[in-house]
Every structure is written in C-alpha cells, then in structure tokens.
Design brief:
The complex is a heterodimer. Chain A is an alpha/beta fold. Helices cover about 35% and strands about 25% of the residues of chain A. The longest helix of chain A is centred in the middle third of the chain and has 14 residues. Chain A is globular. The two termini of chain A are about 20 Å apart. Chain B is built from 15 helices and 13 strands. In chain B, the strands form 3 sheets. In chain B, strands 6, 7, 8, 9, 10 and 11 form a 6-stranded antiparallel sheet that branches. Chain B has a 5-stranded antiparallel sheet with strand order 4-3-2-1-5, with no helix packed on it. Chain B is flat. The chains are: A alpha/beta, B alpha+beta. At the A-B interface, α3, α4 and α7 of A face α11 and α12 of B. The complex binds adenosine-5'-triphosphate and magnesium ion. Adenosine-5'-triphosphate binds next to β2 and α2 of chain A.
Amino acid sequence: MEIVKTSQSSKPLPSSVLKVNVSKDEPDPMKQTGESDAIQSPNSDRPKIEIRQMNFFYGSNQALFKVNLNIREHKVTAFIGPSGCGKSTLLRCLNRLNDLVIGSRVEGKILLEGQDIYAPDVDVTDLRTRVGMVFQKVNPFPKTIYQNVAYGPQLQKVRGRAILDEIVERGLKGAGLWEEVKDRLHSSALGLSGGQQQRLCIARALAVNPDVLLMDEPCSALDPISTSKIEELLHSLKQQLTVVIVTHNMQQAARVSDYTGFFLLGELIEYDDTRRIFTNPGDRRTEDYVTGRFG
Amino acid sequence: MMPSGMRKFLDSGTLFVWLCGSGLMVSILMIGGLLLLIMMNGLGYFWPKGLVEFTLNDGTMVLGQLTGREVIPESATPELPDGKFRIQVKVGNRDLYGLDFQWLDEDQIQTREQPGEVLSIERREWGKFFGRIQAVKKREVVLATGNMEGLKAVKPLVEQMNDIQDRIHHLQHDIIGAVNYEIEAIRLALRDLELKDEQETNEWVDLQKRLVGLQANYEEHTKMLRALYDQLNEYSVILIDANGREKDLPLGQIVRILQPNQLTVFGKVLIYFSNVWTVLSDEPREANTEGGIFPAIFGTVMMVLIMSVAVVPFGVLAAIYLKEYARQGLLVRLVRIAVNNLAGVPSIVFGVFGLGFFVYAVGGSIDTLFYSAALPTPTFGTGGILWASLTLALMTVPVVIVATEEGLSAVPMEYREGSLGLGATKVETLLRVVIPCAMPGILTGLILAISRATGEVAPLMLTGVVKLAPSLPLDSYFPFVHLDRKFMHLGFHIYDVGFQSPNVEAAKPMVYVTTLVLVFVVVMLNLMAIAIRNRMRKKYVGSAV
Ligand SMILES: Nc1ncnc2c1ncn2[C@@H]1O[C@H](COP(=O)(O)OP(=O)(O)OP(=O)(O)O)[C@@H](O)[C@H]1O
Ligand SMILES: [Mg+2]
C-alpha cells in the first residue's frame, strides 16, 4: 500500500501559535528531511522526538504503518483519530511500555534527542524516567498521597526526609494539587476525587523530572471542571517539558495542543499545526473526522 | 397438562430458591449441631457433679456420680410397654473396683440420697476416690479419726503436699534437668574428642573434671529429691468407700479434696473455672486421661507457626515465578495442574514422604554431618516438630500457590504500568506495588493452609508426634527452640485418649474437651490471620481480593 503523503503545508505558521521558541531563520522542514514520504513537522527547531518509518506489530497483527513524526520541545502535541487507530500504541512506544506486550515488535526508529530508544544498550528504566506517562485509567497506588508522589524519587535512591518533602511539594504544586491536599498528605490517595487522583498521577509523573510527558486520554473519565483544571495545567507544564496527549475530544485537542496528528487505521494521515488541522486540513479524511462526519 | 398454578410456581424459580435455601439450611444445621454436641459434652466436663449414694435391695451401697439412664434392652413386657430402666453411675475408686462405671437396674434401688459429707478426692493415680475419711495418720500415729475431724486435719496437709509436689517438679525439671542437659553436652563433647583421637588433651581433662563436678551435683540433687519423696509419704489417710472397704492413701497422692454435695453455686462456678484453667495449663497425668493438655496446645500452635513460616515464602515465591516470570505456555499449564492436584493427595502420602525424605534422608544426613557424637541415638534423624511442620508445609503449599496466583492476577494492570512508567524495574514493581496489593490474597492462602494443617493428624504420626513428650520444643536452655524434639498435638491427643487409653469410657469427657480446644485453637489461629488480612486490606483499599 502506498504511504499516504500528508501535510502539504510548508507555509509559515501563524505567528500567534509560534510565539514561543521559534526562530525565523530555520530551514524549511520539507527540505530538511527530503524524503517523499516523511511527515513534515510544521515547526522546524530541533525535534525532541523523531519517529522514523515506524511499524508496530502485535504478533502478526500490524497496528502502526510507517509512521513518521517529529515532536517539538516545549509544545503540546495531540494525537487524534477514531478508536483502534493506534494512538495509544504509538504513545506507549515512546516510553517502551509496549515491551510488556508479549509478541510485540517494533520496526523503524524512535529518536529521543537524537538517540534511538530501541537501541540495545538503552536502559529502559532510565528512558521511562525521562519520558513519563499519565494513563487513561486513573491509577494512583493504594498508598498515601505522599508515598505516591515520592515513589519515583525513592526508586532513584533519593533519600532524606527534607529532600523528599521538597520534591513531593514541588510535584503536587506542579500538578496544581498542593493547596487541596497539603493537610492530608499522609492519608490514602484512594480517598481523593477522580479529578484529584488524575492530578496526583500527573504530580507523581512530574516528581521524577521527566523531559517528556505522555498522556493517554487523561480526561476521559473526568467531569468538565476537573478537565478544565488539567487543561490549564497543560499550558503551564509545557514551559518545562514536552507534552504528547491522546484525546477523543476535538475541542480539547483544539484548545490545548500546538500540533495535531490525525491517525486512521494505523497510519498517520496528517500532521500539522493544530489550527490548520481544525480549520483547513489538507486531507479529506481529516476534514471529515474533525467536522464529525465520521469516526 | 400441568395445572397452571403449578406451572407458574415452577417458572417463577421459587422452587429453585427453596432448594438452595434448604441446602444452606442443612449445612448450617450440621455445623451447628456438631459444635453444639462438642460444646455440651466438652463444657459439661468442668462442672463439679454431685455424689449420689444408692442403697440396693441386697443391702450394698453404691456411691458415685449419675452419668446416664437407659432402657434395659429387651425388657419391654405387655405390662410395662416402656421397659425397665437402668442407670449408669461413675463410681470411681478404680484401684478397688477395677472399673470406673457401674450399671444399676432401677428396680433394685431402694433409696437414693445425697449425703453432704461425702468426699470426692482427686488423686495423682487411679482416678478419683469417692468415699469418706476414717483416719489420718503420721506414720503409725493416728492424728484424727472420723470424716469431719479427718477432713479438717487433711486440708492444710494437702496444701503442704502440693507445695512439696511443686518443689519436686521444679527440682526434677528445672534443676536436675539443667544438670542433665549439661552432662549430656559434656558427654557429647568428650565423644567428639574421642572420635577425633584427641584424648588426654587439656581440653579433654578439663571436660572430665567438669563432668565429675556435675555428677556430684547431680547426686546431691537426687538426694534432695529422695528426701522430698519421703515427705510425701509421711502422712497417710485411711479412706473407706460406701461399703466400708478401706484404702490407705499417702497424702502426697492427693491433688484436691471436695465435698461436692455441699458446694454452693458460686463455689461450683469457682471450681468450674479452676478446672478449665487446669486443663489449659497443666501437663497430662495417667496416660493422658487426667490433668491438662497444655503440651498438646503448645505443640499444635508451634507446629502451625513453623509451618506458616515455611509455607508462605515458598508458596509466594513459586506463585510469583509461575505468574510473573515463567513464559505462559504448555509447560506452565502442566505445572499448574500438577500443583492443583497435589492439593488433593491424601495427607498420609505426605506423611510417608516426610518420613522418607525429611526424617531419614535429610535428618539422617544432618546427624552424620553435625551430630555424629550422639550417634547411634538420632537427633534429627527421627521424627520431630521441624519435620512434621515441613511435611505439613509441603502439603499446604499448593493452597498458598493458588491463592497467591489469584491475588497477583487481581492486581490491576494499571498499577504495574504506573510503576513501570515511573522507571521502576520489574522487581521493584513486584516488591513495592504488586506484592503488597496481593497480600490479602496471600493471607487468604495462609488462612486456608492453617485450617487444613491444624486438623491434620495422619502425616504427623509418621513424622514426630507422640502421646507424651517429655519436654516442650521451646524452653529456657540454649538454643531455646528445639526443632528436633518430638511434640504433642491436639488432634493426635484426641485419637490417643479416645482410642488408645486403657480406660476409654472414663476418657470420653477428655476427648470432647480436647476436641473443643482444638476447634478453639483453629478458630483463634484463623482469626489472627484474618485480622492481619483486614489490616492489610484497609491499608491497600482498592485491591480486589
Ligand atoms: N495488547 C494488545 N495485543 C494485541 N492487539 C492490541 C493490543 N493493544 C491494542 N491492540 C490492537 O492494536 C490496535 C490499536 O490499538 P490502540 O489501543 O493503539 O488504539 P487507540 O487508537 O488507542 O484506540 P482508543 O481510542 O480506543 O484508545 C487495535 O486494533 C487493537 O485491537
Ligand atoms: Mg487508546
């Protein structure tokens, strides 16, 4: 099957989107890669993550087909697409959580800051501390709030009450949860509300100081208020790190992300500046999907 | 064609509900009835019964406790359709009559009385004596005559004798026991040197000297012991039974004298509880039919604890390997089936294995390697509490494996992914998240294992249980825990008292009491484990098991 070429856009992005970190004198991404089937990122400073010609198989069942994608630093990148199109699969490849699936196989390359994360000498646990993850199903450990946030640092042999206290506070503040829980740090995390639990999971991920945060439908089980809190959070988070988010909620993708990738049946159909995807997509199928005509 | 009402009834499922309900009902009734029977028989044992004196038609007297009444077989006649009755009386005085019980036909009985002055005397041998005191003597000098006077004179003396008994016990068990223990240790050390051909060395001479000193010590203590025994026989009391037969009893033989017919209810309650305490805290007497069952309780609990300590780590590690590490395939499926079937193997098979493997193979090797000086007397090469516990652990390990595997499966995938996503290795994830969450499941396994192990007797008989153990497996001599010792067990005690004792009928109450205690111990051990599990559950709310 022919690989679908996406994003014919090489036009400069609207300056409103590119306020941060964009220098005008960067080369055109089209020219940078040169390959005909490479998906071109509309932005062109050095990508945090580069996905090259990636195929993914669950046993004999191929879930991703020749995906090419660049993820920009300090941006929020959203993956959208109908159910079963491989968004979660791709996300979980970025911190090699798919290694757990017996019989799964990856082809192609994923480069994190230029280094192949599937290279044999890569320390997976180290990779996962650099690329954190927040899951669709809210999953705080059945421990206290404090122990949840301190879990990651403790694995990295961070000892000493004072240091841990500080890390926990920083993590909870980063996730906007500190004010709500500072008086009950040592009560069970399972006593929190769903929204609070999800922010606790974010705090837990932040506490290990990742460069990249992967979020798989983080708001799908939450009420609108909790959702908006997490969306606000994303705006502040991207100052410090790179966020990749999977969502089924078009409005959410439009609100929070800088770039959006649209997937269909394991293929990346189109990847572009979010505003463009939602206002003037290059592919019919993208247009159908974002306008709700199918999906 | 069924009548429509009937059809409706069947269709509504009411019948099925009733069927299930009655099934449950029958189970509850059976369990309740079982417990009730044991409780009634067991708890009644402690209540001090009154003594009845019968005068028979031929003028003989019978004194004893009323224990039963039944129709004389084939005594029903047209005039007496209900038949004649006879009563069973526990007459005691086994040394005089040979039997504890006597049947009396009701139509031979002339009078029944409950004389207040009669005595029930608990002795160290031959069971109870029912009768009266004729005289109290110090050697050949008569101190008092008659029942009332005699009782007054005897009461303080009995206390004195019990003191002496306590001192004898202390001397024998603690002091002479310690000396013996040391002598044995030195003897083994000497033997060890002999085997190494190091006789006449300084060490050897030293040891010999100490041995001589200890032996002198031993002699001295045995002399004291003899003196005490003499004191026990200093006083004696002449007893008479209902018919005036005499019995000369040294006072040291008496444990307690009661006048059961004069006791108030309050007095009876006091005696009731003191009896309960005696059974729970004392050592058995008279081929286990009298006295207490403390060593058996202790042995049972200690065996179960050792078993738990052994079974949990093994079972949990095996389950973790099976569930988390082994590649799920045909082999693992086969192993799992084998493990499940192991749980169904009759326990005596485990007993045979324990005897062959633990006792002879492992124990024998330990003996030749570390205890060669004591040979040919085996140390570990014979049944003991360690081997019994390990045999039971082997028997119950499948239960723990299955329960742990279920507990592990119930830990949500999200917890594992959450942990791995934070940079934890698989081991860290297991230790910090998965196993704590599976802890309730593991403890469920332990609870089941304890229930099964506490009631098991057959394998123990091959691997170390005895009817009377000279010492507990835990004491104050280094190394304090003696895993090589034989031990007593409640389940075996029931079997022994009920079926192996010379006087089965008299031992029956003891069987019920022991059964009651066994049930109580099982329940207590389970409650303990359940309490721990509930605490874990509270701590790890949200885990499913
Ligand atoms: N563990 C697995 N084993 C085998 N196949 C899998 C596994 N996980 C996902 N798949 C398959 O891979 C394909 C992509 O799944 P994926 O979960 O990535 O979709 P998704 O885009 O995240 O869908 P959704 O929006 O519903 O979450 C699906 O066809 C799915 O059936
Ligand atoms: Mg998904």
